[in-house]
Design brief:
By secondary structure, the chain is of the alpha/beta class. The chain has 2 domains: 4-237 and 403-417, 3-Layer(aba) Sandwich (Rossmann fold), CATH 3.40.50; 243-401, Rossmann fold. 37% of the residues lie in helices and 13% in strands. It contains 15 helices and 13 strands. The strands form 2 sheets. It has a 7-stranded parallel sheet, sandwiched between helices. The longest helix is centred in the last third of the chain and has 17 residues, at 386-402. The model is unreliable at 420-443 (pLDDT under 50).
C-alpha cells in the first residue's frame, strides 16, 4: 500500500545525495515523497525527481558559497570549535525553528513516516511531538560511542590491553561534554511542543523509531555492538543529480581520480598541490573540484584534467587510485568499486573515515598540509603495492552483498506498515497542535 513520506535534510554537503537517494528509491516504488530542505537544494531535489518544500523559519544555507554557509566551520580554529558551530547552528540552536517548520508541513500534508537527516534534532522533536513514526538517516560511520569499539571521532585504532580500554572509557565520558551547551536550546524546543526535557543531547539522537546507518557494516569495527533500533542498511552509491557527464583525460596511463569536499573547506591550495603531485607521475589525473571551487582557478599540469564535476561511479570503473579528503560518500564509492585510496582528511568525520580505510588495508593517509612530493609518494605507494587493491576489492565484495537489496527502503516501508490497525494514516489539522502544546495523531 503506498505511503506518504516526509524527508527533512539541510545543506550539509556530502550528506545530501545519500538522503535523496533513499527518497528517490521510495518514490520509484510508488510512494508519496516530499523533501523539506534549504532552498539552495531545490534544483538537486527536483533533479532527483522529488518534490521540494523549503524551510520557512529554519536556517537557509548554501555550503558551496562560503558567504552563505550556515556553519562556516572552515573559520573554526580547532575541531572542537567546528563541532560547536554544528551544535549551535544546526543541531540544537535552531531546534525550535526546525520543529516549527516540520510540524507545519505535517499539518498541511498527509505523512505516514518522517525521515530526517541524523543531525536535525528539531525535526526529530517534531516527529515525537506529533506521534509520527520517525527514522533518522546517518550518512557516515555511526558517530556516537557503542560497546565493542573505540569511541568514534579521533580515529583511534582498537584498544589493546588495559591502557587502551582506559583510553576508551575516558574519551567516551568526555565525548558528551561538548554537547552540554546545546541542551538548553534543545529542551526549549521540546517543552514548547509538550515534551519532557532530556538530561543530555546525545539521548535525543536515540529518540526515534529507527536509526538507519547508510554505511557498510563491514567498514566499521567487527566487534562493535549496536542497539536493536540502530540498523546498518548499506551505503548509497549513486551519483548526485549535478554530477554531469564523464570526460576522461587522454591517454592510457593509470587514472587517478581526485575528489575533495563538495562544500567549502579551504581546499583550493590542497587541490593545486595534488595536481602538482600528479604532474610528477606517469599517470592521468581527473580532478573534480565540486561546486565550492571554480575549476578555472586551479592550476594543473597537462596530464591532469580539471572539471567541476563528474559521475564518480562511472569514473571509478577506470580508476587505479582515488585521492580524497575521506568524505564518506567518495570513500564508500571507491571501496564499492574496489579502488584503493590516498586519504587527505580536512576535518569533520574524515579523520575517522580515513582511519577505517587504513584499518581495512585499502589505502594510506597524509596530512592536509602535506607537500606535493609527499602526496606523490603516497600515490606511488598505493599504485605499486597490489595489497591495497586486493583489500579494496575485498571490501567491494562485502559492500555488494550489503547492497544486494535496498535495506533502507525495506526498513522505511516496514515502519509505515507497523502503524497500529485502525489508526489514522495521516495527521489531521486539528490533531497536531502548534508550538507550546502537545501534538498527537487523531485516533
Amino acid at each position: 500500500m503506498p505511503s506518504n513520506f516526509l524527508f527533512a535534510t539541510w545543506a550539509g554537503g556530502g550528506a545530501v545525495p545519500p538522503v535523496l537517494s533513499v527518497a528517490r528509491a521510495l518514490r520509484e516504488r510508488g510512494h508519496g515523497v516530499r523533501v523539506l530542505a534549504d532552498e539552495s537544494l531545490r534544483d538537486e531535489i527536483v533533479g532527483a525527481g522529488l518534490e521540494a518544500v523549503a524551510w520557512t523559519t529554519a536556517p537557509q544555507g548554501d555550503p558551496s558559497d562560503p558567504s552563505k554557509d550556515v556553519i562556516r566551520d572552515f573559520e573554526a580554529r580547532t575541531p572542537l570549535g567546528a563541532a560547536a558551530r554544528l551544535r549551535d547552528r544546526i543541531v540544537c540552536g535552531p531546534a525550535s525553528d526546525y520543529a516549527r517548520d516540520t510540524l507545519a508541513e505535517l499539518r498541511a500534508r498527509p505523512t505516514d513516516v518522517l525521515v530526517s537527516e541524523h543531525m536535525l534534532l528539531g525535526v526529530a522533536t517534531a516527529g515525537e511531538a506529533a506521534g509520527v513514526p520517525t527514522a533518522s538517516l546517518t550518512t557516515t560511520i555511526y558517530p556516537f560511542p557503542t560497546p565493542g569499539a573505540p569511541p568514534p571521532g579521533p580515529g583511534f585504532a582498537p584498544a589493546k590491553g588495559a591502557p587502551g580500554r582506559l583510553r576508551d572509557r575516558i574519551v567516551t565520558r568526555l565525548s558528551g561534554k561538548p554537547w552540554v551547551k546545546g541542551l538548553p536550546a534543545l529542551n526549549s524546543a521540546r517543552v514548547e511542543n509538550g515534551l519532557e526535557p532530556l538530561d543530555s543531547v546525545v539521548e535525543a539522537f536515540e529518540r526515534v523509531d529507527r536509526i538507519l546507518v547508510l554505511s557498510p557494516r563491514a567498514f566499521d569495527h567487527a566487534g562493535r555492538q549496536f542497539p536493536e533500533h540502530i540498523r546498518h542498511v548499506g551505503p548509497r552509491l549513486e551519483d548526485p543529480a549535478w554530477a554531469g557527464d564523464l570526460t576522461l583525460p587522454d591517454g592510457d596511463a593509470p587514472l587517478v581520480l581526485v575528489g575533495l569536499s563538495s562544500s567549502f573547506m579551504k581546499q583550493h591550495d590542497l587541490l593545486e598541490r595534488i595536481a602538482e603531485a600528479l604532474g610528477t607521475l606517469p599517470v592521468r589525473g581527473l580532478l573534480t573540484t565540486g561546486p565550492a571551487v571554480d575549476p578555472a582557478t586551479v592550476r594543473a599540469p597537462a596530464n591532469v584534467l580539471v572539471t567541476a564535476s563528474a559521475p564518480h561511479s562511472l569514473a571509478l570503473r577506470h580508476t587505479a587510485v582515488t585521492v580524497t579528503h575521506a568524505g564518506h560518500g567518495t570513500t564508500v564509492k571507491s571501496l564499492g568499486a574496489g579502488v584503493p585510496m590516498v586519504c587527505v582528511p580536512l576535518g569533520r568525520d574524515q579523520i575517522e573515515v580515513a582511519r577505517h580505510v587504513r584499518l581495512a588495508g585499502a589505502g594510506v593517509s597524509v596530512g592536509k598540509g602535506a607537500s606535493a612530493r609527499t602526496i606523490a609518494r603516497a600515490v606511488e605507494r598505493v599504485l605499486n603495492d597490489p595489497s591495497y587493491r586486493s583489500a579494496a576489492e575485498r571490501m567491494a565484495q562485502a559492500i555488494a552483498a550489503e547492497t544486494a537489496t535496498d535495506r533502507a527502503v525495506a526498513e522505511l516501508e516496514a515502519l509505515a506498515e507497523q502503524r497500529a490497525p485502525g489508526a489514522a494514516r495521516t495527521p489531521d489539522h486539528e490533531s497536531i497542535e502548534p508550538s507550546g502544546q502537545a501534538g498527537t495523531f487523531a485516533s
